[in-house]
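ARCHIVE RECORD
Type: protein–small molecule complex
Small molecule: heme C
Source of inputs: curated submission
Record status: active
Notes field left blank by submitter.
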Amino acid sequence: MSDAKETKANEPVSGLPYGVLAEYHDQDELIAAAKQVRDKGYERWDTFSPYPVHGIDGAMGIKRTILPWITLCAGLTGMTTALVMQWWTNGVDYPWVISGKPLFGVPANIPITFELTVLFSAITTFVSMLVLNGLPKPSSPLDKVRRFARVTDDRFFLVVEATDPKYDDSSTLKLLEDSGAKAVELVPQDTSSDKIPMGIIYGILILGAVSLIPFGFFSTARESKTTKAPYHIVPNMDYQAKYKAQRINGFFASSDGRAMRQPVEGTVALGDLREDSHLYRGLQNDAPARTFPEAFEIDDAAMARGQERFGVFCAPCHGETGNGDGMVHRRAFALAEGTWVKPTNIADPSIAAKPVGELFKTISDGIRNMPGYARQIPAEDRWAIILYVRALQRSQGEFVASADASQK
Ligand code: HEC
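STRUCTURE (tokenized, with ligand):
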């Protein structure tokens, strides 16, 4: 294409042309031309460039967009919707007191309010932007002009539409020619059919029909009965080659057929050999031990540990001093729980007279209405608690000298 001015005043195919198109080779030319067209008072015209041109808005006399105001209204609508919705559901329609809090308070309702504000503004902004710009626009008569193809590359264009009140074939052409355009041409109306090609319509219909198939499949699956397992698309770790507890295992059919195998006779799992009967069962020669086990070291640390564990595991029922009025007891008593038995006063002489082995058994296995704590409290800690119980008994002057004599 030569840089010489070329003017092709093609006659429109029928009636009015679409408009006049002027081509420029750089953005300064475009801006200068835009200013002239603006000053002549044209309204229906536009400029096109391969990249956003700074200052083109001013040169074209484009007013500030009203989009921010639309966004603001949408945001306020979203905010009001969220607040009213939450106030009505929580405060009016289904009042439900939670932790004595008010039925409606702004701070608790901010997250949803924020979400709806953002949601309403974002969607409205997006849709309004399209509407204000007249989008989507699948085709334009400009698409048929060969030279216009370079608008995405290195050419700048200005078009004045024939529907502009000021438009006039000759004077508009003249204005653009004088504006420094490298080429000016009349753009004919696009007379090709604006019907959607049947192929596309059929394509959409077929796709639409096909996309319904999965839903038909789901609904029959929901309504029909089958003995087959459901399809499991992502099995994760739901199926594993393993035997579950208490199941049959055919491999051992000749012996007992159980999936759970007994350990080989005489074996003990590592660390499970509780050989020290004194330490782990509180027994000496099969009788309740009267002394603390050798393996249990009696010192300040053990006493402190015992006091701490007693506070955790025993005081709730037996009370801090062990006299049986712990919080659980007082609560059960206040509620007049019929089956509640008052925890024993463990500073009582009858309890103080019991050998430590018997206390160990009480903590481990429970006694009458008191549950056992062997699972929660390791053996060493049970002894530490007993040490502290002894201190409690002694501190309350109920310690029986005879029991004391044989014990550490
Ligand atoms: C859930 C409440 C509860 C907790 C926790 C509890 N006890 Fe008891 N305990 C009782 C009750 C109730 C009795 C009386 C049981 C009865 O007479 O039926 C009792 C009885 C006893 C006795 C008297 C046993 C006897 O020979 O008569 C001792 C000792 C004792 N508890 C020690 C403890 C120690 C030590 C702990 C902490 C490891 C503990 N208890 C934790 C409720 C509790």
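CURATOR ANNOTATION: Confidence is low (pLDDT under 50) at residues 1-13, 399-408.
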